[in-house]
Write a structure and sequence with these properties.
Largest sheet: 3 strands, antiparallel
Bound molecules: zinc ion
Number of strands: 5
Shape: rod-shaped
Helix content: 25-40%
Structural class: alpha+beta
Radius of gyration: 21 Å
Strand content: 15-25%
Number of helices: 1
Length: about 80
C-alpha cells in the first residue's frame, strides 16, 4: 500500500511490485503517478497528457507561429 503524493489517498498497490519508471493512477484524484525510486519509494505526479518529447516539439511550433505572423505582414506587400 502506498499513498498518493497529491491527495494522500491510499493506493491499493503492493510496494514490492513497483519498479522505478512504473506508472500508476490514483483512483482517488485520478492523477498519473510515476515511480521515480523504490528505496525509499518515491512517486511523482505526471503532467497531464504531456510527454517531455511533445514539450520540445511545442517549443518549436511556437517559433514557427511567430515566423508565420511575419509572413502575414509580408503578404500585404504583394497585394
Ligand atoms: Zn490522489
Amino acid at each position: 500500500m502506498v499513498n498518493c503524493p497529491l491527495c494522500n489517498a491510499a493506493i491499493d498497490v503492493d510496494e514490492e511490485d513497483l519498479d522505478a519508471g512504473d506508472s500508476l493512477i490514483c483512483e482517488e484524484c485520478g492523477a498519473n503517478l510515476n515511480v521515480s525510486g523504490t528505496s525509499p519509494l518515491e512517486l511523482e505526479p505526471d503532467k497531464e497528457d504531456d510527454d517531455d518529447d511533445e514539450d520540445d516539439l511545442d517549443d518549436d511550433d511556437v517559433d514557427d507561429d511567430d515566423e508565420d505572423d511575419d509572413d502575414e505582414d509580408d503578404d500585404d506587400a504583394w497585394k
